[in-house]
Design goal:
By secondary structure, this protein is mostly beta strands. Helix content is 12%, strand content 32%. Among the domains are: 224 residues, no CATH class; 146 residues, no CATH class; 162 residues, Immunoglobulins (Immunoglobulin-like), CATH 2.60.40; 129 residues, Immunoglobulins (Immunoglobulin-like, Sandwich), CATH 2.60.40; 117 residues, Sandwich (Immunoglobulin-like), CATH 2.60.40; 109 residues, Immunoglobulins (Immunoglobulin-like); 71 residues.
Length: 1412
């Protein structure tokens, strides 16, 4: 018999067999935000440095407000009108597809949460009124259900014993209906008593949906579920029909697990997602997911993960049929697999078999460890310099501080630092700063409030800073350096680019960064543990990649002592990491060139031909519970409380002859360029590369460090550029602040803005820069050219001719390689630029050598275009030398030198209209030409490090490709000449994806209905913005690309006459000025002429004045109506004719509610022409800030008069009620398991956390049941009173509970807020360790047959000693193997042993004792 082995969150033997991880992508879990807003956010996410998104379940839940985990229809992504809505909580299917397309355009992968264990809450055939197929495609036999004597069904209880793996997998989870996912023909828990079995139904589940299938039979006995027959793909054009499904019924029948496999495959194909986060995997048997053993398990298409990987290859064109899992577990391999990672919230069942089935796991063990250790003076971080310590190995771990299930994170800032620098795959969680409401006993909101500054909100740039560090340095394996109670240091070693047998040399050549984390929040810690960077004291040398003492930069910014500084590696032991802080050291990678940056330039510049591309401003906005002053770049902002800022973005309007120019400092040996997710930029490909799209670093063959990057052409590398001055002591490097000459054309004299005094030291730095550059426009040119001056008289250094200007300047005798440029403006701005290129409106003309004067040179240009008379000419003159070699920043002098240098690479002649590319960055479908909309360029400059790990930095530039005007069509009225009547008419417009606004104006010759007369914004005689609505499935536009739908009402329609309806389609680059022509305003105007046949009376919504307004429950709406409509009626009779209905606009009239008559009031003589109906609506905010509700006011008039109707589409104002919740402890965990505090043999201190709005002034915590000592934790002892920890718009109040006795307790938190005093209660169970031990001992070991014997498994907890014993007669027991101690374990595990002795009948038991 083998000795027992523990397989748990610690690095057990099974986990260590997996390949090591290198660079893990930076993932953002982004929840509670619409697909449309996520799409708009993509440029910001790319600029921040996120590589992938984990998004909520995209399928339709039990209702339109469902977060998605109560799955209803796995084939509804927001396209079917069911469960009260077409759209899901997040949007429509079209918006979802566009989200993925845009994410891929920005090189960001997308992983959707995927639910396979359960459906929603309803039970099929619960009674006679609930159909058995209430869930599309399912029947009762597909679920774990109890049958009743009457032939109906009931759900089983939720799991009672979480140590019983059978219950975990066959009973309920949070009252959701449990699917029988166990493979095979038998349902393990279906019948009258628990444990009853039944045969699973096997039938055709979608006979009328051929688009949900992908195979056709080619022979007898084949099965679609087995992947047999011919693959024809999913979708409406696959050739499968309802008739062919009926004719081949046996081929298309399937059990529930096959149905789930097909649904997952369809979703991968339909959305082009890059993988899934698999929900609640431990509630589903591991062998449902995939092959867990055998030499071919990694290439097997079996099971859920195998089928997903098979479809990923088929849909995306990958051909790695020999291994579906290698790039799942090794993120630095070229990605050719769908990324799959599961949620497993603790054993049993054991972790190992799920990993074996082909998935990573979300590392809850590591999170729990850090929550117990970080900031805890009584705990230590010993061992946490090692990869995988405290959780899973790097090849398995998906590390997180918070999630939609868990908001408590001890010292979250340190957790983020660990997760984005240590080996493994780290993530940040956000709810988009849209706070969900509190969900019952879960202890908080669902999804949980994040309060993370994921884009640098609240002036906190730590996460964006960590993302940059992660992307530039966090790759390779993790090399531990030091760990003790407070200090952890480790390095990342990337040894993939060279071969080295000596381990010390391998680490020296491969080290990319050193991380030092100090968990002591009271005092700093000096760095110990050494480094792999060369660290020989006094061995440093300038400009030397082989220096013996590496010159390191501290990259971590944003908190306390986290400021950039340099130190030699030999001096690291004198560096003190501040309290509760972290430092990250690496050589200084290429930066922006000061010469270009200080002149106003960006590292990446786009040119259209010879001219720099124009720009426009776009608004970026935070969520409604986010940062009112959101402005992470510190840009000018007129309104600092509107949650928004504006940023300038380049706008590309040419399709051809584009140039992308990258400028960095002088340390860049090479620069690579990435357009979107990877598009050919140079028309070539490296030798041996057969990619049909000519990508230099194509998918599957390239690691993430190089994926999609192209090699641009080298332009130049220059030394510092010196600018001219009248007094050469004022010569300075760089145009910013350099001497500026000013002259009004045609006038006499000059104005000179002097450069800085004594800026020039006259050094040539070994011939690399000019010693001086002299220019005095009023002085004569010295010396004379060959042949003398015309007329024998030297000219002035500035001469205006009829159409040109001639300018001279004098440097010292500089020799070859130097170039001189004249930088000028005529619009009043200062001329700025570098290297012969201008920034802003600066124009540039090159100057050339003219003649010598003694040892000095004179340069000139006689063809500078002369501006018109009266214009102000401003100019500067610069000189620099090209031909520089890159410098290595190995000392302070080289660092200073490189910043004044400039390296330039360029892609030229790029044709954005004809380039062939893959929109999903794969080998699947291709497209020609860039899509209209936002795109991104990334530049990656590299240090010169031959034979070592690459070191680089990354620059990002978003731009907008604007080659087309918006397109669309007026759907209704359908044609010119249509006759429209009624009190209002609904106009329907369809537009393409990049149309973001629709405006309208109606001209009908009726002055009395103009907006200027009615006081409303109805579009009568004035331009008004229309509302975007959920597209109606019954409308088919002529152009399938017109997927967005906008609507508005033509109100107060005249009784006779004609009207012209103008509709204006706009995109983000269109002008807000509606007075321009279409070409000048960059918009498209559609028109429709109609005949009007309205009623003789008017009724319209006056307040709010326009559609789309957000209102609260205290807002008074008013509808105006003609006074004659009240003639002869009492107040009661008039109200009886009026009705107000309201409900969701996209499902109208389903779910509509009617206001009671008592809620209506008549305001007589509101205006000279109208009475008013006034009313307020109840609070209908449902966490969807932009979701539209419809309000319809109708008047029932006697026959034969025409009834009147007035409508308004409105958004609900977000609630502002006070928030308080006890976040720790919870009553139940994320899986519905009751939370208990375990009390060992002595009292323990437990942290209770209360969350409130940041406006709360005090929180008190007390006992309603039980008693004990509760001590508040003061997060700011300097400030008066007890201060909470502030995170974003939330405050967290911690209390230390000194727990001394087991029992049942009830805590009451009372929060004082400006709006109110509010309380929250929490039931808490405290149990003794002995009680837990006894429950644990009551569980039976798991027994599984293996080749030649049995495997015994048993769940373990920390602090135990487990001994397996064997008996042949249940009387005499003997130990089998050595005992297993979990004294040092960080979390639950699995005790596992195999008996292959082949002997007769044997019995097993596990004896458990508390570890000493």
């Amino acid at each position: 018999m083998k000795h027992p082995a523990r397989v748990a969150g610690l690095a057990g033997a099974l986990l260590m067999l997996l390949p090591p991880a290198a660079k893990g992508e930076a993932m953002l879990q982004y929840f509670n935000t619409s697909w449309a807003e996520l799409t708009r956010k993509m440029p910001e996410l790319a600029e921040a440095g996120y590589d992938s998104l984990w998004l909520p379940p995209p399928t339709k839940g039990s209702g339109g407000l469902s977060v998605g985990y109560d799955c209803w229809d796995r084939f509804d992504l927001g396209s079917k009108d069911q469960r009260g809505s077409v759209r899901t909580f997040y949007g429509t299917e079209a918006e979802l597809i566009e989200l993925v397309r845009v994410a891929h355009r920005f090189g960001i992968r997308v992983y959707f949460d995927n639910v396979m264990n359960h459906n929603a809450f309803e039970t099929p055939s619960y009674n006679a009124s609930v159909p058995e197929d209430v869930y599309p495609g399912f029947r009762p036999g597909d679920f774990h259900l109890r049958t009743t004597a009457e032939g109906f069904y009931r759900k089983w209880d939720n799991t009672r014993d979480w140590n019983d793996a059978w219950q975990v997998q066959n009973l309920g989870l949070s009252d959701l209906i449990d699917i029988a996912t166990e493979p095979g023909t038998t349902n393990f828990n279906h019948g009258p008593v628990e444990g009853s079995t039944a045969t699973k139904p096997d039938f055709v589940r979608h006979p009328n949906n051929p688009e949900y299938y992908c195979y056709v039979p080619t022979g007898a006995g084949q099965k679609h579920s087995a992947g047999q027959g011919t693959y024809v793909g999913f979708g409406p054009n696959n050739g499968i029909t309802a008739a062919s499904i009926t004719a081949n019924g046996s081929f298309y029948t399937e059990r529930v697990e096959d149905f789930l496999n097909r649904a997952a495959r369809w979703q991968i194909d339909r959305t082009k997602a890059d993988g899934f986060r698999l929900d609640a995997v431990k509630h589903t048997p591991a062998d449902f997911f995939g092959a867990t053993f055998g030499g071919d398990k990694d290439s097997s298409n079996y099971g859920y993960t195998g089928q997903i990987q098979q479809q990923f290859n088929l849909s995306r064109g990958f051909t790695d049929w020999n291994n579906h899992r290698d790039s799942v577990f090794d993120t630095e391999k070229g990605r050719d697999d769908a990324m799959l990672f599961g949620e497993h919230l603790g054993q049993p069942p054991g972790y190992g078999s799920y990993i074996d089935a082909g998935m990573r796991l979300v590392d809850n063990d590591l999170r729990s460890s850090f929550n117990n250790l970080l900031g805890n003076p009584s705990s230590g971080l010993n061992g946490y310099d090692q990869p995988g310590q405290g959780g899973f190995s790097p090849s398995v771990a998906v590390m997180h501080a918070q999630s939609h299930d868990s908001d408590y994170a001890a010292r979250r800032e340190l957790q983020h630092a660990f997760y984005f620098t240590r080996a493994g795959l780290g993530l940040v969680y956000t709810d988009g700063n849209y706070h969900a409401g509190v969900l019952g006993a879960s202890g908080g909101a669902f999804p949980r409030h994040a309060n993370t500054a994921f884009l640098g909100q609240w002036g906190d740039a730590r996460i964006p800073n960590l993302l940059k560090i992660h992307n530039d340095f966090a790759r390779g394996w993790q090399r531990g350096r030091w760990s003790d109670a407070d200090l952890v240091t480790y390095e990342r070693i990337d040894d993939r680019e060279f071969s080295e047998g000596n381990q010390a040399l391998k680490e020296r050549k491969g080290v990319t960064m050193l991380v030092a984390v100090n968990d002591n929040y009271a005092s700093g810690r000096g760095i110990v543990g050494g480094t792999s960077f060369p660290a020989q004291g006094g061995g440093g040398s300038e400009n030397n990649p082989e220096t013996n003492d590496e010159y390191l930069f501290q990259y971590a910014h944003g908190y306390g002592s986290q400021t950039g500084f340099y130190t030699y590696a030999s001096g690291l032991n004198s560096v003190v990491v501040g309290p509760g802080s972290y430092f990250i050291f690496a050589p200084r990678t290429p930066e922006e060139s000061d010469a270009w940056k200080n002149a106003g330039g960006e590292p990446i510049t786009i040119y259209q031909g010879t001219e720099k591309a124009g720009s426009f401003e776009v608004e970026r906005k935070d969520g409604t519970d986010g940062d009112p002053g959101f402005n992470p770049h510190g840009l000018p902002d007129a309104n600092t409380t509107d949650y928004a800022y504006r940023i300038s973005i380049p706008r590309v309007t040419n399709t051809s002859d584009l140039r992308f120019k990258v400028r960095t400092d002088g340390s860049a040996e090479n620069i690579m360029l990435l357009l979107d997710g990877g598009i050919d930029l140079n028309g070539t490909r490296p030798p041996g590369n057969t990619d049909p799209l000519k990508r230099d670093n194509p998918p599957a063959l390239s690691t993430d460090s190089f994926l999609g990057y192209e090699q641009p052409g080298f332009v130049k590398r220059q030394f510092a550029e010196k600018f001219a001055a009248k007094d050469t002591l004022r010569n300075k490097a760089g145009s910013a602040g350099a001497e500026t000459y000013q002259r009004v054309i045609g006038s006499a004299g000059f104005t000179i803005a002097n450069g800085p005094a004594n800026a020039n030291d006259y050094s040539t730095q070994g011939g690399e820069v000019a010693a001086f550059l002299y220019h005095d426009p009023a002085a004569d040119v010295g010396g004379a050219p060959a042949g003398g001056w015309p007329g024998g008289m030297a000219p002035k250094q500035y001469v205006e001719n009829a159409s040109t200007i001639a300018v001279w300047a004098k440097p010292n005798g500089v020799g070859n390689g130097f170039r001189m440029y004249f930088y000028y403006t005529t619009d009043g701005s200062n001329p700025e630029g570098a290297g012969g290129d201008g920034t802003g409106s600066t124009k540039v003309v090159e100057m050339n050598f003219s003649h010598n004067q003694s040892s000095d040179d004179w340069w000139m240009n006689a063809s500078i275009p002369k501006p018109a008379a009266g214009l102000t000419l401003k100019y500067k003159i610069g000189i620099f030398k090209t031909g520089a070699a890159s410098v290595y920043p190995s000392g302070p002098n080289t660092v200073a030198k490189k910043k004044n240098m400039m390296t330039v690479f360029e892609v030229s002649g790029f044709n954005a209209g004809t380039v062939s590319h893959s929109p999903h960055n794969d080998y699947g479908a291709t497209e020609t030409g860039l899509a209209e909309g936002f795109h991104v360029l990334r530049a990656r400059p590299f240090l010169k490090r031959s034979g070592k790990a690459s070191l680089y930095s990354t620059f990002t530039q978003t731009f907008y490709y604007d080659a087309l005007a918006p397109g669309g069509q007026i759907m209704f009225p359908a044609a010119d000449g249509s006759s429209i009547g009624g009190s209002e008419y609904g106009v329907v417009v369809r537009a393409d994806n990049f149309t973001n606004e629709v405006w309208y104006k109606i001209e009908d010759g009726e002055a009395s209905n103009d907006d200027s007369a009615t006081g409303t914004n109805s579009g009568n005689g004035a331009w008004v913005k229309a509302s975007e609505v959920t597209p109606f499935g019954g409308i088919t536009p002529l152009n399938a690309a017109h997927t967005r739908e906008f609507r508005f009402n033509y109100v107060n329609i005249p009784a006779t006459g004609n009207a012209t309806i103008q509709v204006r389609l706009k995109e983000v680059t269109s002008s807000p000025d509606n007075g321009l022509s279409d070409s000048a305003g960059h918009y498209t105007t559609l028109t429709r002429t109609v005949l009007t046949a309205g009623p003789d009376r008017k009724m319209f919504v006056a307040f709010p004045q326009n559609d789309g307004a957000a209102i609260g429950s205290d807002y008074v709406l008013k509808t105006y109506f003609s006074k004659s409509l009240a003639d002869g009626l009492t107040d009661a009779e008039l109200k009886a004719r009026l009705a107000v209905r309201y409900g969701p606009d996209d499902s109208w009239p389903e779910g509509v509610q009617t206001l009671p008559a008592g809620a209506l009031s008549i305001v007589y003589n509101e205006t000279a022409d109208y009475h008013a109906l006034a009313f307020s609506l109840p609070d209908f905010y449902d966490a969807r800030p932009d979701f539209l509700y419809r309000v319809e006011i109708s008047q029932d008039r006697p026959v034969p008069m025409v009834d009147l109707t007035a409508t308004r589409r409105l958004a609900a104002q977000a609630g502002t009620g006070p928030y308080v919740a006890i976040l720790q402890p919870l009553e139940v965990d994320a899986s519905g398991r009751p939370v208990e505090i375990v009390l060992p043999d002595q009292p323990v201190d437990y942290t209770v956390r209360v969350g409130t709005d940041a406006t709360a002034t005090a929180v008190n915590l007390s006992f309603a049941i039980g008693s004990g000592a509760l001590t508040p934790v003061d997060f700011d002892p300097v400030a008066p009173g007890i201060q909470p920890e502030i995170q974003g718009s939330s405050a967290f109040w911690d209390f230390t509970w000194h727990v001394t006795a087991a029992g049942q307790y009830r805590l009451v938190a009372t929060a004082t807020l400006p709006q109110a005093v509010k309380t929250e209660t929490r039931h808490v169970a405290v149990v003794t360790q002995q009680e837990v031990l006894e429950r644990e001992a009551a569980a039976s070991p798991g027994l599984a047959a293996i080749a030649g014997g049995y495997r015994v498994s048993f769940p373990t907890l920390p602090g135990r000693i487990y001994q397996l014993q064997v008996s042949g007669d249940l009387v005499s027991w003997s130990d089998s193997g050595a005992p297993l101690s979990t004294a040092g374990a960080d979390g639950p595990g699995i005790f596992q042993a195999e008996d292959t002795s082949g002997s007769g009948k044997r019995f097993y038991r596990v004896v458990i004792a508390v570890a000493p």
